[in-house]
């Protein structure tokens, strides 16, 4: 066992030293994970176990093609319309209803069962029913997004308000704070982190809602790309469309999570 | 360290999952098993011909089973995966893009659609140049047909809208929101009855395209050749009988007790439907030929669903004619 002099090894790391440092980087492991996954995908597809399973390279090629010919951008523009309207509605109604349920027992008794039912019900089975009432247009798709996103946002807001420490409220009252002051300066700020977490979950549900709507109601946007390429057996493009919406959802939810950490969770900022 | 462990574990899990999926083995059907037919839709009046042929094959000692799926794609997957022996559809694009060992072997029906326009606005194909049309969905037969007519007549639509369901498009035409579309026979009749002479049919000449065919795994075609021959013979006999006398369908439905849950009004329309389709010649005899395959490919290529067939095109890539000897 030889001992290397620090004077020699410190400025110029040996191959093993570089490798050690390289492997200690979290990003390296993340990239390695993706590479391994891509490799496994490529090898599995090349074994030909399923005729409808494209290789990783075919899928990325199709992804690039759809990106450059504008079909992906066009599809997302159409998908984002009902998604953003649905999420905005869910946000406004969900937070308002959640806060109202948290503050007033009468409102809780009145509307909590509705949200519990909405959260528990298998929405994919109910979405086709929406078309009976609202047809096949944008309204049905917005409602599909709301049906999935709203209960999560409302329930989290409700629980957030309910779980505000009673001692904080008591403190407000002992300082002769009015009810309005208690709500705006104590309850809402204290419940914001959990509400935001609910918003993140709601957005994730909203993505499920829009994809379900575009697959079950009428194929538009990303749902159209998936069904069209499936119907003409263009599996590379079909997989690329699916992967793109998964990535889009992950990135959107990731950005919200990052914002949540930045705004509400100072202990996680690493400061 | 946690990152390392988590990353490696997730990568391994992914690999194991994919490997497990690749290890999935489909079990081929045994000779005594029933021939399992997979349809991409629930059985309706239009399926009665096939159902009668299945009953006749059963009488000849070949047991048959019918399964319904949500779409034709799933029926194709069932046939490729060995969960079904025979599928109903026209999977040209699937065979071309995947190279899967499935072949069509019996041509059941040809496409029958009616391009319809509001005669107050348009009167011929050239009027549709630069205009919007409405079809069923992207990649559908209705789109393929309208695309082909675009080529044939040297016109270009400004936009193609997608509205699933012939009856929905017919409703939109009656309301005046759609002026040019393509519908099926039932919806065309509706437009004629309710439209007060407002709607006219544009001519489509020389289109010979398969609507539905029977297809199977090449392995099944080989291993169950005797059973397939009996079934195909029953199909040929049934198709000949229907073409000779369309009223036979309603009689045989009662005889075999098929589609017992069919509502009375739908059952009353069986004879009208079959008389109509027979007079339009969409139940071809003979089970399909190499020329039909070339026509199908030309039709689908015009719609952009398959690549244009070259000079060295081999119909055997898509069809197995040995079952009915064409």
Structure described in brief:
By secondary structure, chain A is an all-alpha fold. Helix content of chain A is 82%, strand content 0%. Chain A has a single domain (63-268), classed as MetI-like fold (Orthogonal Bundle).
> What is the residue-mean pLDDT of chain A, rounded to a whole number?
86
* Helix proportion range of chain A: over 70%
The general outline of chain A is flat
N→C terminal distance of chain B? 68 Å
Q: What's the CATH architecture of chain A?
A: Orthogonal Bundle
Residue-averaged pLDDT of chain B: 86
The greatest inter-chain interface is formed by: A-B, 29 and 36 residues
How does CATH name the architecture of the largest domain in chain B? 3-Layer(aba) Sandwich
Structure description:
The complex is a heterodimer of chains A (about 270) and B (about 325). With about 270 residues, chain A is an all-alpha fold. Chain A has a single domain (about 65-270), classed as MetI-like fold, CATH 1.10.3720.10. Chain A is about 80% helix and about 0% strand. Chain A contains 12 helices and no strands. In chain A, helix 4 packs across helix 12 (about 235-265). The longest helix of chain A has about 40 residues, at about 180-215. Chain A is flat and about 70 Å long. The two termini of chain A are about 40 Å apart. The relative contact order of chain A is 0.11. The model of chain A is unreliable at about 1-10 (pLDDT under 50). Chain B is about 45% helix and about 15% strand. Chain B folds into 2 domains: about 35-110 and about 210-305 and about 315-325, D-Maltodextrin-Binding Protein, domain 2 (3-Layer(aba) Sandwich), CATH 3.40.190.10; about 115-200, D-Maltodextrin-Binding Protein, domain 2. In chain B, helix 2 links the parallel strand 1 (about 35-40) and strand 2. Chain B has a 5-stranded mixed beta sheet with strand order 2-1-3-10-4, sandwiched between helices. Chain B has a 3-stranded antiparallel beta sheet with strand order 8-5-9. Chain B has a two-stranded parallel sheet with strand order 6-7. With about 325 residues, chain B is an alpha/beta fold. Chain B contains 13 helices and 10 strands. The chains are: A mainly alpha (about 270), B alpha/beta (about 325).
């Amino acid at each position: 066992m030889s001992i290397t002099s620090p004077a020699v090894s410190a400025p110029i790391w040996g191959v093993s030293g570089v490798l050690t440092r390289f492997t200690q980087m979290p990003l390296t492991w993340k990239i390695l994970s993706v590479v391994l996954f891509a490799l496994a995908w490529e090898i599995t597809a090349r074994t030909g176990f399923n005729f409808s399973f494209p290789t990783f390279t075919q899928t990325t090629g199709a992804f690039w093609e759809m990106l450059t010919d504008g079909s992906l951008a066009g599809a997302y523009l159409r998908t984002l319309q009902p998604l953003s309207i649905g999420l905005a509605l869910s946000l406004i109604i969900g937070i308002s209803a959640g806060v109202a349920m948290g503050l007033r027992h009468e409102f809780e008794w009145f509307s909590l069962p509705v949200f519990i039912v909405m959260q528990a019900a298998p929405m994919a089975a109910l979405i086709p029913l929406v078309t009976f009432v609202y047809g096949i247009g944008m309204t049905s798709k917005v409602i599909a997004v709301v049906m999935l996103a709203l209960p999560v946002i409302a329930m989290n807001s409700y629980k957030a308000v309910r779980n505000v420490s009673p001692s904080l409220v008591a403190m407000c009252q002992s300082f002769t704070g009015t009810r309005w002051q208690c709500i705006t300066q104590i309850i809402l700020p204290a419940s914001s982190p959990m509400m935001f977490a609910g918003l993140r979950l709601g957005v994730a549900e909203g993505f499920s809602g829009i994809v379900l709507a575009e697959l079950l109601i009428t194929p538009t946007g990303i749902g159209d790309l998936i069904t069209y390429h499936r119907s003409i057996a263009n599996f590379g493009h079909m997989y690329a469309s699916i992967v793109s919406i998964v990535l889009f959802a992950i990135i959107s939810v990731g950005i919200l999570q990052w914002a949540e950490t930045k705004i509400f969770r100072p202990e996680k900022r690493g400061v | 360290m946690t990152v390392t462990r988590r990353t490696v574990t997730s990568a391994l899990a992914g690999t194991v999952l994919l490997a497990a999926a690749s290890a999935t083995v489909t079990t081929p059907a045994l000779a005594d098993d029933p021939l399992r037919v997979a349809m991409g839709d629930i059985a309706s009046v239009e399926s009665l011909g096939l159902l009668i042929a299945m009953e006749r094959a059963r009488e000849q000692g070949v047991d048959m089973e019918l399964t319904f799926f949500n779409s034709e794609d799933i029926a194709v997957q069932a046939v490729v995966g060995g969960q079904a022996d025979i599928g109903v559809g026209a999977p040209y694009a699937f065979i071309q893009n995947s190279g899967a060992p499935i072949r069509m072997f019996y041509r059941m029906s040809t496409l029958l659609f009616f391009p319809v326009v509001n005669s107050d606005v348009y009167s011929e194909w050239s009027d549709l140049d630069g205009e919007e049309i409405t079809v069923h969905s992207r990649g559908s037969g209705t789109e393929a047909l309208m695309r082909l007519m675009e080529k044939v007549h040297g016109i270009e639509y400004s936009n193609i809208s997608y509205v699933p369901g012939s009856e929905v498009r017919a409703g939109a035409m009656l309301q005046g929101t759609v002026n040019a579309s393509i519908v099926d026979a039932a919806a065309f009749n509706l437009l004629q009855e309710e439209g007060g002479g407002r709607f006219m049919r544009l001519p489509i000449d020389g289109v010979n395209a398969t609507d539905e065919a029977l297809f199977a795994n090449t392995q099944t075609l080989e291993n169950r050749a005797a059973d397939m021959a009996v079934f195909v013979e029953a199909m040929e006999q049934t198709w000949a009988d229907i073409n000779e006398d369309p009223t036979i369908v309603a009689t045989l439905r009662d005889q075999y007790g098929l589609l017992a849950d069919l509502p009375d009004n739908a059952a009353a329309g069986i004879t009208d439907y079959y008389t109509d389709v027979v007079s339009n010649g969409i139940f071809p005899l003979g089970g399909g030929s190499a020329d039909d395959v070339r026509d199908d490919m030309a039709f689908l290529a015009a719609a952009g669903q398959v690549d244009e067939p070259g000079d060295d095109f081999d119909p055997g890539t898509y069809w197995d004619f040995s079952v009915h000897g064409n």
